[in-house]
Amino acid sequence: MDKLIEANLKAVLAREGLEAKPGDLEQFSDIIELYMSTLKTLHSVNLGSEELGPVFRPEWANK
Amino acid sequence: MATPEKPLYYLSIHEAQQLIKDKKLSPVELTRAVLDRIDKVDGQLHAFINLMAEGAMAAARNAEAEIAKGNWRGPMHGIPFAVKDQLDVEGAQARVRQFTKGVGDATPVRKLKDAGAVLLGKLHMSSMPGPELPQPRNPWNTAHITGGSSTGSGAAVAGGMCLGSLGEDTAGSIRNPSAFCGIAGLKATYGRVSRYGLAPLSWSLDHCGPMARMVEDLAHMLNALAGHDPNDPTSSSQPTTDYASSIREDIKGLRVGVPRDYIDECAPRTDPIVLKRVEEATAQLKALGARVEEVKIPTLNLATIANAVIYYNEFWAAHKSSAAEILKSGAAQRRARIYLGLLTNSADYIQAQRVRSRCRAELAEVFQKLDCLALPNQSGPAPRVEEVGPIDTLFKHVVPEYHGPFNLTGLPTLSVPCGFSDSNLPIALQIVGKPFDEVTVLRAGYTYQQAMKWYERRPAI
User: Fold this and answer.
1) Contact residues, chain B, for A62 at CB < 8 Å
2) ∠ CA(B258), CA(B420), CA(B82), 5° rounding?
């Protein structure tokens, strides 16, 4: 797995007090790398002023 | 009534309900026939993880007594059904919850019970925790998978082990097994069917819905399932209708869009036989009177990855308190979702939500001129069991494919069988509609199914 991705994953696991199951980082390296590359694709599009999908609607009584 | 060609357990819900209503078929007789069928074939298909035969017979006897007294509750009264493990059932909470508490009967289960349906038990799903259970097998060929994650729901319906089942769909989990198993499945509009009592995978993408052999059976089930539920904050109060009586109108003049650019984007990863069968089905819709045209939905190519980003991030959030246990003893797919969710930052999640917003806007514009979309529902026929690894599904969820975009946008989406591969494995068409317009989606699927009669073929098992 890409060293930077691996270091990042280990850091966020540690931040949460978690540890990867032994062997998982090797087993899942392909999907993790593919996922990280598609995240870049997700950010490659210019969405202009598009806002968040979910919209806050304050009409509690009508829930 | 049952014939050697069509035994009781292969009656459609529509056929059975008419016979039960007319007192020509007893719910007890029907339930016993289905339980005998389970006894005969589930050793090969492995759909059930918790068979509740005693409770089912008691419910069937109760239904029979009520109907005998003239208290027929409606088309689901006395109909045997089964439930994907992910939904809680009183006394049998979702095993997939693993470290959290269930709620008794999930609302969809309660609603079917209230309609008089007979609960047979709980069904296998992908990435079940605990000791490994046998993987469900495809009734059309037991060397092949059923598709997931509503694995047992697909196998049970196709194998004649229930007349209808409940599934759950976060990235295709109703539509994929429906396609692979040659049955119909409906992911209704987000909010149409309550999620209360459903062990969450991703709050904003999870949809509960019916699976059955016939489209009209889905309509009967949806009649019982649809409607607002105060226990589910995302449940919609949009009005419902009588779906079963609204689908018989023909489709002359129905405006059907084919998202050609998107299909072309997915085509390199799609078996040509799927594209061929879907082309044939679209031509058939045209022959039935629909007006078919090609449409462009530019941001759809990012919808699958946006769906995956939201899925894994919400999965991580939903399972944060039990993540240590999942990483220690959970199934590979669940562990992988935790890692991917952890690697997703807030900018990624927000960008995915913005893509969601853009997709919804583009689809809303397309639906100004169209009534529904038609496109493939799978990348190929069901693969052989040994061809599929424990996390292969995750690879499909991060490249453009046919399911995720409609979880992302919450649109009602039907899977309806549209033929077979050369090796006799089912292939399905996907029909997508406007928000809360389940009627149009079901009507198009019903008309197509009645014209083509693929349902007359049944698995040899």
Assistant:
1) 237
2) 95
Give the count of alpha carbons within 13 A of B256, CB side only: 30
What phi and psi, each to the nearest 5 degrees, are found at residue A11?
Answer: -65, -45
User: A61 CA to chain B: closest CA distance, Å?
Assistant: 12
φ, ψ for residue B186 (rounded to 5)?
Answer: -125, 120
Chain A from 15 to 44: CB within 8 A of any B CB: 16-21, 24, 27-28, 30-32, 34-36, 38-39, 41-43
pLDDT band for position A63 (cuts 50, 70, 90): very low
Structure tokens at B341: 């969710």
Q: Give residue-wise pLDDT tens across range B291-326.
A: 999 999 999 999 999 999 999 999 999 999 999 999
Q: What region, left, alpha or beta, does residue A17 occupy, with left being phi > 0 and alpha being psi -120 to 50 degrees?
A: left
Token pair recorded at residue A21: 């199951």
Q: Over B52-113, what HEC string results?
A: CHHHHHHHHHHHHHHHHCCCCCCCCCCCEEEEECCECECCECCHHHCCCCCCCCCHHHHHHH
Hey, is the C-beta of B317 within 8 angstroms of any chain A C-beta? no
Each residue's pLDDT tens digit, B391-439: 888 888 899 999 999 999 999 999 999 999 999 999 999 999 999 999 9
Note whether B382 and B180 are within 8 A (CB): yes
Quote the Cα angle for B88-B159-B449, to 5°: 100
